[in-house]
Design goal:
The protein is built from 17 helices and 5 strands. The chain is α/β, with parallel strands linked by helices. It has 3 domains: about 10-170, P-loop containing nucleotide triphosphate hydrolases (Rossmann fold, 3-Layer(aba) Sandwich); about 175-235, no CATH class; about 240-344, no CATH class. A 5-stranded parallel sheet has the order 2-3-4-1-5, with helices on both faces. The radius of gyration is 22 Å and the shape is globular. The protein binds adenosine-5'-diphosphate and magnesium ion (MG).
């Protein structure tokens, strides 16, 4: 798979309602860094896709008092990681910018140890989503020579969090309605000063639907930027597309994320859109469906195909696109068919 990466830089002015969470986590990290224990501390941030784990991890990473505690700070985006060697390479690359793909795992591990030797380091592993990787083995091969070293992970998978944790996992909470509203307004009006009161009122009900998920507020806000009131109404009423309006806008919002998908995932994703709008996506069903459509390497045996399907599903579930898709399916009744037509 091609990489869909996150990076550690942010526009912090765009992140709302996370001061307390950030301070709590910075404090946990500081305490762990200052303890004299020689074990590597692992702090997981857990929560559903789109709740804001990556955004929060960035705030923590960029906080001055975090920076003061460590000699070395690394941000590794591991959503697409497929094996140990790949991950070690991603970590080294996050420091030097150079890929050392050609090296053996042995040589890569040595390089990593050189890089971190005698350093008190903070390593972020953002978006651990592949549970076929032996993450414990990864943690075990990281040097823990100096006391106070720290690994911050973000993941949707609480099983992985509890396997790796040394500190109690931090569950990233949904945002309060008010903060979610700020995000929505930021994207729905961009810099515009004068905000239509009618729109703001409809916006209130739309934000309610976002249920504290920043991704939802952002997606729906972007969708409604410079749209007339009838479209706002449609989103509020859950029938954005019954009139055929709004189709192009939804597609352009979705397309941004869609374009970033590797091509084999694109095909599988497109087929998802042929499900009826309120379809509960059960992993097994989806995989069967892909299989029936011949998308999972038809030549291979069923077991192998299921494995590939699971891999694809996990890949998709870790992406904001997947959640955005749900939201938009809720907002628009016939979106599924439209997308199927446009994207296949
Ligand atoms: N507190 C927040 N304020 C504003 N935008 C946010 C906030 N948290 C997340 N976002 C935005 O919502 C989207 C999803 O957040 P992200 O951190 O990627 O979620 P996760 O990593 O949990 O899947 C991103 O576009 C992010 O910039
Ligand atoms: Mg993330």
């Amino acid at each position: 798979f091609a990489q869909r990466e996150t990076h550690s830089l942010i526009g912090e002015q765009n992140i709302f309602g996370r001061d307390k969470a950030k301070n709590d986590i910075v404090k946990m990290i500081s305490e762990a860094a200052e303890s004299n224990s020689n074990t590597l501390s692992v702090l997981p941030l857990i929560g559903m896709g789109g709740v804001g784990k990556t955004a929060l991890a960035k705030l923590v990473f960029n906080d001055k008092s975090t920076k003061d505690k460590f000699d070395k700070m690394l941000w590794a985006s591991v959503s697409n990681a497929f094996d140990l060697k790949h991950i070690v390479n991603i970590i080294i690359q996050s420091d030097s910018g150079e890929s050392n793909n050609q090296l053996t795992l042995e040589a890569l591990t040595k390089k990593l140890h050189e890089l971190l030797r005698d350093k008190r380091y903070l390593l972020v592993l953002d978006d651990i989503s592949n549970d076929n990787v032996n993450w414990e083995e990864l943690i075990n091969l990281l040097p823990s020579g100096r006391s106070g070293c720290m690994i911050l992970i973000t993941t949707r998978l609480s099983k992985i969090a509890s396997e790796l944790k040394t500190l109690e996992p931090y569950e990233v909470p949904k945002l309060p309605h008010e903060e979610c509203g700020k995000i929505f307004v930021r994207y729905a009006f961009r810099g515009e000063k004068a905000k239509d009161r009618e729109l703001l009122k409809i916006g209130e009900s739309i934000v309610q639907k976002c249920d504290g998920l920043p991704l939802a507020a952002r997606t729906l806000g972007s969708l409604l930027f410079r749209k007339d009131i009838s479209m706002w109404q449609e989103v509020k009423e859950n029938n954005l597309l019954s009139t055929g309006k709004g189709k192009d806008d939804i597609l352009s919002v979705l397309k941004l994320s869609y374009d970033a998908l590797p091509s084999d995932l694109k095909t599988c994703f497109s087929w998802l859109s042929t499900f009826p709008k309120d379809y509960d996506i059960f992993r097994e069903l989806i995989i069967m469906y892909w299989m029936a459509m011949g998308l999972l390497n038809p030549a291979s045996r069923t077991k192998e195909a299921i494995r590939v399907g699971e891999k694809y599903f996990n890949e998709l579930a870790g992406r904001s696109l997947f959640q955005a898709m749900f939201l938009i399916m809720m907002a628009a009744s016939h979106i599924a068919k439209c997308i199927a037509l446009f994207m296949i």
